[in-house]
Specification:
By secondary structure, the chain is α+β, with helices and mostly antiparallel strands. The protein has three domains: about 220 residues, no CATH class; about 130 residues, no CATH class; about 60 residues, no CATH class. It is about 20% helix and about 15% strand. The chain has twelve helices and 20 strands. Strands 2, 6, 7, 8, 10, 11 and 14 form a seven-stranded antiparallel beta sheet that branches. The two termini are about 25 Å apart. Keywords: Repeat, Signal. This is S-layer homology domain-containing protein.
Length: about 450
């Protein structure tokens, strides 16, 4: 965002910077140690800039166990009406470690952030095990150390940054169970942040969001969901993908009694709703969350119904699905559907078809798409015919979707189903994509983009 924009807003800009010798023209405060409630708690490395700065913003604290990289275009906004010295990184005492004890809000880990009905916390206490691998670090503007309800007004980040935490563990993370938990204050439940683990350096890097002040802790988050322990054939193959996305907070557990939520009581697979697909893409791609815009889709507003499909209240597990939908639309991932009356709808509870998923993935990763010149005789159609020739399946792919299907097939993000009799593949373009299939596709995309 341009510097002159902030001048118009008549705010002072405070940026946090650290270099071995400091930056010319930037005043840096001395170390400040201030107590907060709790035993053995200490804040370290408070930095101050009294001038508007851009770039060079990197903070390292607690013997380099915590590093925040604010990015070249980021600012720390400062309200003229509030005095303060910058940011504190606080080492907390062990009594606030996250656990799988849901008897109190202090130790609970929940996927819903709204404790009031109908979005009550779903008790998954016996479905997972949380083991802290690092201390809890709380990051706050310095003047909020005595505040009881989180940061005071005036501080926010213009764009997402990254936070890197060191952890202590001998595990290799081959099962991708190392996660970062975050909560905005001590009266909120812990939620999972998508993070990139470096098992060699024993660090994990997650997004330090626009409202990233709060507490962070690296944990080992393990589970044994019934779909996999009972080896349900239709979804057992998806364990590595589902586990990976769940451990990174990208895909939510929607089942109960030990089930992840891939199959119903009759072992029929659950499909992915459009609302869930949008939420998974936004979380996984680390897109800055947009505010809810009531003017984009007529069925995604503050007054729109809950995200309920196939007997599952997805509202519990993706409480910000409306904001995620608006974010996905603002990045051009979802275009919406025009009704006969002319209004634009999103249809959040409708299942995502396989050809729709192909278009969404191609847009998300910016794949090269060979658009068609002639729907009846085109190189795209010729290429699809070589890939998917079972019962002329390639002709069943919608004209608009054929370039996207070809792109994701070439990139090996999606593939067809082999007919054992004909030995040919079918893409099944109009079939709903299941939650298990979605996990595999999105996990492969995020791995390839080095986002997890």
């Amino acid at each position: 965002m341009k510097l002159k924009f902030f001048g118009i807003l008549l705010v002072s800009l405070l940026a946090v910077a650290i270099f071995s010798g400091g930056m010319p023209g930037v005043s840096v405060a001395a170390d400040v140690y201030l107590p907060i409630p709790g035993d053995n708690s200490v804040s370290q490395w408070v930095y101050t800039s009294t001038t508007a700065t851009k770039g060079w913003t990197k903070l390292s604290a607690i013997s380099k166990s915590v590093e925040i990289n604010f990015g070249k275009d980021n600012y720390l906004l400062f309200n003229n009406n509030i005095s303060g010295e910058g940011i504190n990184v606080i080492l907390r005492d062990k009594t606030i470690f996250p656990t799988n004890d849901s008897s109190s809000i202090n130790g609970s880990f929940a996927q819903s952030v709204d404790p009031s009905p109908p979005h009550a916390y779903i008790n998954h206490t016996n479905d997972w095990i949380v083991k802290p691998l690092s201390p809890v670090y709380t990051i706050v503007p310095s003047q909020t150390l005595t505040a009881s309800n989180g940061p005071l007004p005036g501080y926010s980040f213009v764009s997402p940054s990254t936070i890197t935490l060191k952890y202590n563990s001998n595990i290799s993370d081959s099962y991708e169970t190392v996660s970062v938990l975050y909560r905005i204050d001590d009266n909120s439940p812990w939620e999972i942040l998508p993070g990139l683990v470096n098992s060699g350096s024993k660090t994990v890097t997650a997004t330090f969001t626009t409202n990233g002040f709060g507490s962070y802790c690296v944990v080992n988050l393990d589970s044994d969901f019934n779909e996999f322990s009972q080896e349900i054939a239709s979804v057992n193959w998806s364990q590595q993908y589902v586990q990976s996305l769940w451990n990174k907070g990208i895909m939510s557990q929607t089942g109960s009694n030990g089930y992840f939520g891939l199959v119903d009581g009759s072992s029929n697979e659950y499909n992915t709703t459009r609302g869930e697909f949008a939420s998974m893409l936004v979380k996984g791609m680390r897109l800055p969350l947009a505010s809810l815009d009531n003017n984009i889709f007529s069925d995604v507003t503050s007054a729109s119904p809950s995200l309920f499909a196939d007997g599952v209240h997805y509202e519990y597990y993706y409480p910000q699905w409306r904001e995620n939908v608006c974010t996905a639309a603002s990045y051009g991932l979802f275009n919406g559907i025009r009704t006969a009356g002319g209004s634009l709808v999103f249809q959040p509870t409708a299942p995502v078809t396989r050809e729709q998923a192909a278009a969404l993935i191609a847009r998300a990763v910016n794949l090269k798409v060979d658009y068609m010149d002639d729907p009846s005789n085109d190189k795209v159609l010729t290429a699809l015919k070589k890939m998917y020739a079972d019962n002329d399946d390639y002709l069943n792919i919608s004209v608009w979707a054929r370039p996207y299907v070809l792109a994701v097939s070439k990139a090996k993000y999606m593939s067809g189903t082999l007919n054992a009799t004909t030995k040919k593949y079918s893409f099944n373009p109009t079939d709903p994509i299941t939650r298990a299939e979605t996990a595999k596709i999105i996990q492969k995309v995020l791995k390839n983009k080095k986002l997890i």
